[in-house]
Amino acid sequence: MCTAATPQTTPPAQPSALAPTAAPAASPAPTPAARPAPDWRIRFGALSLIWGFSFLLIKVGTEGYAPFQVTLGRLLSGTAVLAVAMAVRRERLPRGARTWAHLAVAAFFLNALPFSLFAHAELTIPSTLAGICNATSPLWGMALSLVALSEDRPTRRRVAGLGLGFLGVLTVLGAWQGFSGLDFGGTAMALLASLSYPIGWIYVRRTLAGNDSSTLALTGGQLFLGTVQLALVTPLFTSAPDGFPPLPTLAVVALGALGTGLAVLMQYGLVEEVGPTTAQMVTYLIPVIATAAGVVVLGERLSWNTPVGALVVLAGAALTQSRARSSRASGARTGAGARTGTGAGAGATDHP
Fold this sequence. Notes:
By secondary structure, this protein is mainly α.
């Protein structure tokens, strides 16, 4: 997820009591009322569903395409959605070679690398496990921020959250059983993908916070660069697909257009309306929805330790995010951190 700065609005000027009153004139033509946006709770729920189902869509996409192809298609679709949004809002791409250089690094850690790792991981692990691994991202972020961000100070509650989250990971993986039946390669790639997000968030926070470009422009440029990176890498490791199977193709397009494009725009609106603290709570619903989708739709097997461990991970992640409100506000405009999210820095994850 990523967050956008809440625009400062100026209240309309009220007529002064001392100002002379003008003579009655013909009333102006009424302006059409803007269509109200759906209640934020509805959009919050929709965003949770979109990002929660992303792991299912990745799994379906890899049934017809190579992992790099899934990621490339995802980034193409997501970039197209943001390009349309920028055109409608008449946004311009960022300027300056330094900004684009920082965006290229952000695109690698927040898009190209984690998207590719999750796609490769789901070749050998269930989508439910991938979704739960994604929930460890706040744990990685807390550990890294203590080293990389001087303003983030350790507290007993946050350290306890880190330890609790680690116990949750061990529960999910079945450590007492000697990790039997676990694919180490796929699980390691999913955990590395989750680690990649906070690395990218910290980089964005240190290099792009306060940039003059809008959040949408920064994120659009970031996704474009991520698409270029995958377009250069994919032909080196994969051959052209023999065809375009309908279901995997629809899954990849939906993954990009909804999970990487539309979801980013939805989160912008949530951050502006309810703030980054509430908007980032979507992070804690993603593994729940991902698990339910994998079990119900894909028929993936679920043992007791998976949901129990996931709840422990989420509890630990929630503790690591507890901090003073003033420190939450400091990260409110880290625009290039799209997960897209998820986002979801101060807003998070993104997503998968």
